[in-house]
Here is the input.
Amino acid sequence: MKNSALFFLIGLLFITCKNSDANTVEFTNLSDSKMNLTNSMQTKKSFSVNETSNTVLKEPISRKLIKNGNVVFETSDLEKTKANIEHLVQKFDGYISSDSKNEYDNKINYYLNIRIPAQYFDSILKGISNQISKFDSKEITISDVTEEFLDIESRLKNKKELEKRYLEILQQSKSVEDILNVERELGKLREEIEATEGRLNYLSNQVSFSTLSVSFYKKVSNETSFFGKIGESFTNGFDNFKSFLLFIVTVWPFVMIIPISYFLIKKWRHRKLKK
Here is the structure.
């Protein structure tokens, strides 16, 4: 009888401890889950880096290069040169992102900013070169962004994996406090993902499309022709005549004083002589 009572108490104690442990696990603080999740992601990231390193050894990396250029040259026909460049741009599936024209005292200048698929950059440059005698200046730059590109891709992949884990935790959360904490962290993470994706898209665009800045000009003479000088003289003479008329209109009261004064003086002298 005593043995039965003893076994009953031991069983009751075991059940109580088990329920207490279950409650402890169920209400574990969100920060512990976050810490475990972070550690898990760090371990996964470390594994991913090692895996990537092994892949690099096996397969060559596709380099991510940004190629841009800037050329300046003189032409005898601005409109024809511009039309030829526009034809080349269409031929190689590019577009003109900016187009401006400036006129100075001694020259007229066109400036075109061309966006062209990277694989056609050398082709359009050669096409322009074949239409002119020489470049006044020519500058080509190539930037290797492979390392930055791979780093951003890796960080973006890890952030999206972490987003999935947060969503899993959100589904398992029961208290309002835990739900709000997870949603707050999830919002911050999604902002980081959007910023990272924006940078990745920018680099992808810069790699896919090269930029070629083209500036060409035509020198103009300041010397005026004979008939041009006649026209200028006629214009100047007419302007002077208008100025003279305006002067007369302005001083006419003073001009009228002279004949009036002359008439009065003459009349006064005539009367004086009669006396």
